[in-house]
Design a protein that fits this description.
alpha/beta, 2 domains, binds magnesium ion, Alpha-Beta Plaits, binds ligand C2E, 17 helices
Length: 492
C-alpha cells in the first residue's frame, strides 16, 4: 500500500462444486457407458440366440425336432464330395394318403401320429444309420457301411412292420424306397431322393405296404406320369378341347333287360401314349392335387349327358359318376356336387354317385352325413367295389346309401370257388333286407348272369351286355328301345 507491501492477497476459488460436477458427469458417463455396453451385449446375445434358433429350424423339423431334409442334403453332399468308399444307401419311408388323414381329422392328429411313428423309427435306426424327417409324411434313413442287400431288406421290412402296426386302422398306407449309392454315380443328394421317391411309387403300385429298390429302368414311369400330369392340366385349362372325355356303360335291369342307367367312365386320350386307363390317370390326378378340378369337369360332363336324357324324355335312366375319396373329404363336397348338378340343368334324381367303402374309414359320421344330404336332394348313392378291401357286412347296414355294387373280382369267382357261390346270395338277401338295390359289375358270361339272376341280383353291368359306349352310341341304344340282351362279349 502506497509503495509498501503490507501483505499478500490470495484470491481463491472453491472447486468443490466443480469437482462434484465433474464426478457427477463422469459417473453419469460411466453408468451410460455400462448401460450401452449391457444393451449391446443383450442385443448381441439375443441376435445370437435368434440365429441359433433359426439355424436350428433350418436344420431340424419344427414339429418333430428331427434333422430335416436340408441336414440330410448337407450330410450326403459332404460324403459325396469326400468320395466316401464304404457302401451307403438311403432308405425312404413314405406315408401314402397322409393328406387325406389331415383333411378329415385335422393337422394335430396327423402331427401326433407322425411323432409316434418317428419314435418307433428311431428305435429301428441303429449302428451306422441316421434318421431324418424329410417332410410331413416322409422319413429317410441314411445307412453307412452296410454289408449286404439283405441288411437293407431287413431294415425296410422292420420299417414296414412298424408302419403296418400303426396305420392298419387308418386309410393311410406306407411304402419304402431304397437307393444304393454304390456305383450309381451320384453327385447330388436331390437326385438320390428323387430316385427313392420313384422306388416308393413303384412299391405303392404293388400294395398298401411294400418296399422297392430303385433301378434305372424306373425312370420311364416318372416321365410317363409327368406327361399325363401335363395333359391333365391342359384338359383342365381348356375343357372344350379336352382329351379327357366320358364313355357310358349301360346298367341293365334283370327283370326286363332294360337300361336303367349308365356308369360314366372317364377316359384320357393322350397325345403321346394313346388311351390311358382311368386307374392310372385318376391316381396321377390324386397325387398331383388335380383330382378336385378333374372330378368337377367329369361331373359337369356327366350332368350334360343327364340333361340330354332328361330333354329327350328318356325316363328312368340315371347317370352314375365315380367319386374319389379325396373329393368326398373336402368340406365343400356336397355344395359343389349340388351346384354342378344344378348348373347342368338335369334333375338331381338323374344322378347317382359311386363311392368306395374306404372313404368311411376316415370319419364315418362325417361321410354319412354328407351322403345323407345328397340323398335328401335326390341324388342316389351306390357303394362301389363291394367285396374287396375294407368291405364288412356289419357296417354296410349303417351306411347312407341306396345300392351296393358287387365287385367284378367277386363275380369272377362265382364260377371257380364254391364258397363264393354261397356268400353272394347272402350278400344279396342282406342288402335287400336293408332296402338296398344290388348291382353286379363285370358280368362277362351267361353262367355268371344266370347265377346272379337266381341269387336275386337286381341290376347287371358288364361286357356280356355292353362295353362302355360313346355318348352317341348310348343315346342310339336308348332311342332304339333301351333293351339290351346278353350276348357273348367280343374278345377284343
Ligand atoms: P369301377 O368304377 O369299378 O368301374 C368299372 C370298371 O370295370 C371300368 O373300367 C369298366 O370299363 C370295367 N368293366 C365293366 N364291365 C367289365 C367286364 O365285363 N369285364 C371287364 N374286364 N371289365 C369291365 P375302367 O373304365 O377302366 O375304370 C376303372 C376304374 O377307374 C373304375 O372302377 C373307377 O374306380 C375309376 N374311374 C373311372 N372313371 C372314373 C371317374 O370319372 N372318376 C373317378 N374318381 N374314378 C374313375
Ligand atoms: Mg364305379
Ligand atoms: Mg367297381
Amino acid at each position: 500500500m502506497k509503495g509498501e507491501v503490507i501483505g499478500r492477497l490470495i484470491l481463491g476459488h472453491d472447486l468443490a462444486e466443480t469437482d462434484a460436477l465433474i464426478r457427477y458427469v463422469s459417473n453419469v458417463w460411466v453408468v451410460a457407458l455400462v448401460l450401452i455396453y449391457v444393451m449391446i451385449a443383450v442385443m448381441v446375445y439375443s441376435g445370437y440366440q435368434r440365429n441359433r434358433i433359426l439355424s436350428h429350424y433350418a436344420y431340424f423339423d419344427m414339429v418333430s425336432g428331427m434333422p430335416n431334409r436340408r441336414y440330410f442334403a448337407e450330410c450326403v453332399a459332404e460324403d459325396l464330395a469326400r468320395g466316401e468308399k464304404a457302401p451307403r444307401a438311403v432308405v425312404v419311408a413314405n406315408l401314402a394318403n397322409f393328406k387325406m388323414l389331415n383333411a378329415s381329422y385335422g393337422c394335430q392328429y396327423g402331427e401326433r401320429l407322425v411323432q409316434l411313428i418317428l419314435a418307433h423309427l428311431s428305435r429301428v435306426c441303429i449302428g451306422r444309420c441316421r434318421l431324418f424327417h424329410l417332410s410331413v409324411d416322409r422319413f429317410a434313413f441314411y445307412v453307412g457301411d452296410y454289408t449286404s442287400r439283405e441288411e437293407l431288406i431287413g431294415l425296410g421290412g422292420r420299417v414296414l412292420g412298424l408302419l403296418k402296426d400303426e396305420l392298419s386302422s387308418q386309410p393311410v398306407g406306407g411304402n419304402v424306397g431304397i437307393v444304393e449309392l454304390q456305383g450309381g454315380g451320384y453327385r447330388d443328394p436331390d437326385e438320390i431322393l428323387r430316385n427313392a421317391f420313384i422306388a416308393i411309387d413303384q412299391a405303392s403300385r404293388q400294395g398298401r405296404f411294400g418296399y422297392c429298390f430303385f433301378d434305372r429302368s424306373m425312370e420311364g414311369a416318372v416321365q410317363r406320369e409327368d406327361q399325363i400330369e401335363r395333359e391333365l392340366r391342359q384338359a383342365l385349362a381348356d375343357p372344350e378341347q379336352s382329351q379327357v372325355f366320358l364313355v357310358f356303360q349301360p346298367k341293365i335291369d334283370l327283370a326286363d333287360d332294360r337300361i336303367v342307367g349308365f356308369e360314366a367312365l372317364a377316359r384320357l386320350n393322350s397325345e403321346v401314349f394313346g388311351p390311358v386307363s382311368p386307374m392310372e390317370f385318376v391316381e396321377v390326378a390324386e397325387k398331383k392335387m388335380l383330382i378336385v378340378p378333374l372330378s368337377n369337369l367329369i361331373l359337369r360332363m356327366a350332368g350334360r349327358f343327364a340333361r340330354i336324357l332328361e330333354d329327350r324324355g328318356l325316363d328312368g335312366v340315371k347317370v352314375a359318376v365315380n367319386i374319389s375319396g379325396l373329393q368326398l373329404l373336402r368340406d365343400d363336397f356336397t355344395d359343389t356336387v349340388l351346384r354342378l348338378v344344378g348348373e347342368s340343368g338335369a334333375p338331381a334324381s338323374r344322378i347317382e354317385l359311386e363311392i368306395t367303402e374306404s372313404v368311411f374309414l376316415n370319419d364315418y359320421d362325417l361321410v354319412n352325413g354328407r351322403l345323407q344330404r345328397l340323398r335328401e336332394n335326390g341324388i342316389e348313392i351306390m357303394l362301389d367295389d363291394f367285396g374287396v378291401g375294407y368291405s364288412s357286412l356289419s357296417r354296410v347296414r349303417d351306411l347312407c346309401i341306396d345300392a351296393v355294387k358287387i365287385d367284378k373280382s367277386f363275380v369272377d369267382r362265382i364260377l371257380s370257388e364254391e364258397k363264393e357261390r354261397i356268400v353272394i346270395p347272402d350278400i344279396i338277401s342282406m342288402c335287400h333286407r336293408l332296402d338296398y338295390k344290388v348291382v353286379a359289375e363285370g358280368v362277362e358270361t351267361a353262367e355268371q348272369k344266370d347265377y346272379l339272376l337266381q341269387a336275386g341280383c337286381d341290376v347287371m353291368q358288364g361286357y356280356l351286355y355292353s362295353k362302355p359306349l360313346s355318348q352317341d352310341e348310348a343315346l342310339k341304344c336308348l332311342q332304339a328301345g333301351g333293351i339290351l340282351h346278353a350276348t357273348a362279349p367280343d374278345p377284343a
